[in-house]
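MODEL INPUT / OUTPUT PAIR
PAIR INDEX: 1
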Amino acid sequence: MKNGTTFALSRIQVSEFFYQGDGDYLAHAWIIKPSFLREIATYPFAFCIYDLVLGWGYIETSLPYVDTDRATAIGASYGGYLTCWIQAHDLGRKFKATFTHDGSFNALSQNASEQLWLIQHDFNGTLCDNFKNYERCMAYG
C-alpha cells in the first residue's frame, strides 16, 4: 500500500460532515474528492442518496468547491427509490441527471427489503399499522 492509494483513493480525498437531520439527530455524510482537487475551483457533484433535502441544503451552502449547477443524483436500493421520488419533486429539478439502480418503484415492494427501518421511518410505521400512507405512494391507483 502506498499511503492508502492501493485503490487510487488516499485518505486526504475522504472527509465527512454532519448536518442537522429532520429530527433531533445529526445526519452523517461522506465526501469523496477527486485526487486533483484544488479548493479554488469547483467540481461537478454526484449526490449518492439516502438523506435528501437537508443534506442537499448543507452541501449547497457549506461546500464552496461543489458546483451544484453540475450535480447528478445517484441511488441504489432504497436510495434508488428516493432518487425516483426526488425526480417528481422540486429537488429533482436541481440535478442535470438522475441515475437509479436496484431501486423499487413501489412503496409496497420496499417491504421485501432488508432495509425495513428506512421504509418504516419514512412511512411512519409498518405496512400493517399505516397502510394508507403506503397506499398514497403506490405506482397504481
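PAIR INDEX: 2
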Amino acid sequence: MTKSFFVLVPVIVLTVFHRQVEAKIHYCFGGKIQHVLITSNLPIDTPMMKLHCQSKNDDLGFHDIENYFTWEFCPNIIPKNTLFFCHLWWGNKQASFEVYNQEKFREVDSKHNWVASPDGIYYHSDVTVIVPVKKYDWSW
C-alpha cells in the first residue's frame, strides 16, 4: 500500500465523524436545537453588563458579560411551551424579556441573537428576522 492511502483513510474517517457529530448537534428528537446568543455591544469604558437567564426547568445563573453569552437547548415536543427569559443589568439600567418563547417564535428559526446596545436590546434570527430589530428599551 502506498503512503497516501494511510494519510487518506484517517482524513475520510475524521470527515465522516465530523459530519455525524455536526448532524447530531443541529437536531433534537422532534425538531431543531435552538441556539440563543446574547451579545454586548456596549462601550468598553462603561460598566460590564450582567445577566441572569432561566426557564422553568433550567437556571443558567448570573454572569458578567464582556462579549457574549450563549447556550443551546432542545425545545419541548408536547406541549410546545419552552420559554427562556433573561434579566440584563448595565450600570443603572436594566431590561427583562423573553429570549425564546416556543409559542411565539417560528419553528424555522433556530438561532436567536440578542444584542445589548446603549439605546436598547435588538433581535435577529437566522431565517425570518435577518436585520436586527429593536425590541426593548432599557429601563431605569
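PAIR 2 NOTE: Residues 3-26 form the longest helix (24 residues).
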